[in-house]
Amino acid sequence: DAGVIQSPRHEVTEMGQEVTLRCKPISGHNSLFWYRQTMMRGLELLIYFNNNVPIDDSGMPEDRFSAKMPNASFSTLKIQPSEPRDSAVYFCASTLTSGGAIGELFFGEGSRLTVL
Amino acid sequence: DAKTTQPNSMESNEEEPVHLPCNHSTISGTDYIHWYRQLPSQGPEYVIHGLTSNVNNRMASLAIAEDRKSSTLILHRATLRDAAVYYCILRRTGTASKLTFGTGTRLQVTL
Is B100 part of the contact surface with chain A (CB cutoff 8 Å)? Predict the structure, then answer.
């Protein structure tokens, strides 16, 4: 199994530009999570999907952030316009949710974003 | 969600056992205790979880206090590759609950 695949691994952009991060979950998993990690705030849950439907987006910082999951094998996290404070490592994780209970989360290697 | 408290950092010598404590005094009856770890420059990875009884797997053991208000992750023989941040997390069953990470314990392993 290839695991959770994220792209790009590294992105450097200028303030004001649009950033799109991509995630391919493990085949067969029905829940997908986006996390952000910074030194100051640690690991923060941004949003999670179950069966391609957003369940909780209360962690999304503001309207500049949006996430989609058009099908079971692909999700995007978009930041428009990007700001320097968005610089962080963004992790995607997936799992199989059954009967409302969430199993072990499998994380990708992360996308390191630097906004200048 | 019930909170957990962990020491910020711990040190261990290689080849020795490591006991990583976690306090969760407000745990509810339906909360599972999960442990994840994050190696440098990697995403978190699952280690072990349990509800009431002690648990063992190939990576570690989890010892849960009888009143469930604390637990201990045991690495039987620490290696340099075990140097990581270890997170103790409570997960409520029966709901599509979030996995909320705290600050964890940074484990240093020395020769």
Answer: yes
